[in-house]
Amino acid sequence: MRLTRSRALAVSTTAIAAMLVAGAPSASAQNLFERLFGNRERRVEREAPPPVVQQAPARPAPPRVTGPQYYTYKTEALVRIDFAAIKPARLDEEAALGATGIDTESVGSTVAVSEAMPSEGVEEIGANAETGGEVSENLPDAESAAGREPANDATSQATGLPRVEDAQPIGEAAPQQPVSVPRVEDAQLIGQGTATAATPKAEETQPLEQAFEAPASQPLTDAEIASLQQVELLAEKEAADAIVAHYTAVPEFIWVSDGRPNERARAALRTLGDAGSHALEPHDYAVSVPATDADDAALAAFEMELSARMLRYIRDARSGRVDPNRISGYHDFAPKELDAVAALQLARTADEVSAYLEAQHPQNVRYNALRVELEMLRAAEENDIVIAPNTVVRPGETNPEFSKILTLIGQRADEAFRAEYGDVLTRHLGSEAYAQELAPVIKAAQKLAGVGADGVIGPRTIRALAGETRASRIEKTEVALEQARWLPSDLTDRHVFINTPAFKATYVEDGKEKLSMRTVVGSTRTQTYFFQDKIQYVEFHPYWGVPRSILVNKYLPKLYADSSYLDRNGFEVVDRRGRTVPSSSVNWSQYGANVPFDVRQRPGRSNALGELKIMFPNRHAIYMHDTPEKQLFDRDNRAVSNGCIRLADPRGMAAAVLGWERTRVDARLEQPHSRQNLDVEVPVYVGYFTAWPDEAGKVHYYEDVYGRDDKTRAAIEKVDALRAPGA
Fold first, then answer.
1. Using H for helix, E for strand and C for coil, what is the string for 335-351?
2. Rounded to an integer, what distance in angstroms lies between the CA atom of residue 487 and that of residue 318?
3. What is the dihedral of CA 648, 650, 655, 656, to 10 degrees?
4. Which element (helix H / strand E) includes 35?
5. Are the C-beta atoms of 626 and 609 separated by less than 8 Å?
């Protein structure tokens, strides 16, 4: 008997209720359904669930390796000289002539500056700014100082002028001889130094010509040393240490004789006062000259202040006012060591103090040419037409500088240019609108000026048409003088000089430019470093060992998409055991930036290094090399490489540094991969100068492609603020 639909529903409901009452509350819905309808032949059709879509795991984004950073420049600490630490041993005359002992356990040079002093750049008692070591650990050993051999300095031999390395041992007597210094007409007081309790007021001081007398040895008495304890004189820590060490060992005046400043002091002050000719700041070395009737305390204070400022001058002259390594990671220079105690000894014994101080500056013709350029620029007038250097004007745009540009083009035009474009140019003179019909005129003017003829007026076009402004040239020359002090004083008669902003490499032999060529340098994202090294070898038909940064930044994205990319493009992948493996067998995405493989490109036509590379091994993986991309040398802005220096004439440079005839290089390239060491390593300077003289001394100016001049000027301004009187 067939159940009606309503009766079936009633039975089902009754059965469910009976099962719940019977104690089956834990039965699942599926079980209940089977118990109720399991014997039924009727199938219940259910809607199939949607298919599950298997999603591929997300591919990780390729990592990136970032380059060096630019830093917020931090100045070196200034400390107050602890004159109480000067404790000279009063010996008899015979012992004094040979004694050099310094009690390094009791001598200290610095004390904490009071809270009233500037907090920036101030150290705690006895702390070393770089190492945190105690003062006594930084003082020179007396016995080693006494036995020190004078350095064999090439500059001193060439010029006859003393340098710090030529100092005599402390305590070894040297005759004090008068120096002959030309009279300074209308001499003025040299600045105002750091105020001291014993220093006379400015109105009490006398002109230099009235204040100085011939030098004679004069001891520094215990009373004068005691009076110095009331003096607050700030100096760099190495200078503070040296002053305490020197006057402990040799308790004699350097700058005072017979109760007055002597000729030696006069010569030193004249040199310090002329610091501006070296693009240094004269107030950094300013010293107040005491009056003719100054007491012993004032003379002792003058002695110490002049010694401190002279040591600052020597350090700045030798190494620069700023530490380039604190500007950015793109600068890499070993510190130039200064024996400040020896410097004071030389100041005491040098026949010509002025000559001694001048000898601390770079002694090369390029530096001297920059000094001459700075002097001429300061005496010159500004350009007749000055255009804002960052001006950019395109066809169809209006700019107030555009009328000046048209005027300059008209002034520079030759007869051929006027014959073809004179009418159009004349119609638009005075206009600030860049009309479309002027585009051919602008392109022709660009071509005539030697820049890219694209019709867009930008900084390079403006510089080519108007030249650098006087103000800009002064700034670039001043920065170049500072940067030149980071390099060795003597660049040697044979070297390679690469100037990144000039896109130029030069080979110098016997002091003369023998070879010069265009270069391609690092882009703004992969900048070429500023450093020095020595060329060691040339590699012919080289392998290119892909730097880790390039492997990660350039090739990993390609390998994530196609793991066989390296196999198909002439690269070899080598694991940590030295085994060559196919790139297609590596799961590149699992390592991130820490790829445990070395990659190199085999020699060949497509090799990124071309047919040879010139190596000066360094931690930045920068060297000179050939390139298959010859078209890049035709560009105006050639900052496009990964950081290395590509040469327009690599065979010529290889022959020069190897000392070969060019034909020998050509023949070597007929052979397979090989390497040739240099018989004598050649210094190489990878420089960054937006102002730099040629062999004839003419200074050329270049665009600051990496913006480093601004960073250098900012660092100099911080040093200025720290050293400023009353800061």
1. CCCCCHHHHHHHHHHCC
2. 9
3. 50
4. helix 29-37
5. yes
Record the tokens describing residue 257, joined without a space: 């004789």
pTM here is: 0.74
- Residue whose structure tokens are 């019709």: 455
pLDDT band (50, 70, 90) for residue 61? confident
Rg (CA), the chain: 38
In the sheet that holds 234-236, the strands lie side by side as 110-111, 78-81, 234-236
For the chain, helix (H) and strand (E) counts, in that order, are 25, 21
Q: What is the per-residue burial (b if ≥16 Cβ within 10 Å, else e) of 11-45? A: eeeeeeeebeeeeeeeeeeeebeeeeeeeeeeeee
Backbone angles phi, psi at 453, to 5 degrees: -90, 75
Q: What is the pLDDT of residues 424-468, one digit of tens each?
A: 999 999 999 999 999 999 999 998 888 878 899 988 888 888 888
Measured in degrees and rounded to the nearest 5, phi and psi for residue 60 equal -65, 150
Structure tokens at 374: 């700075």
- The tokens of 579 are what? 């085994």
Residues 104, 139 contacting (CB under 8 angstroms): yes
Residue 59 to residue 56: CA distance in whole angstroms: 8
Confidence of residue 31 (pLDDT cuts 50, 70, 90): low
Is 572 in contact with 580 (CB distance < 8 Å)? yes
For the record, the structure tokens of 138 come out as 């930084």
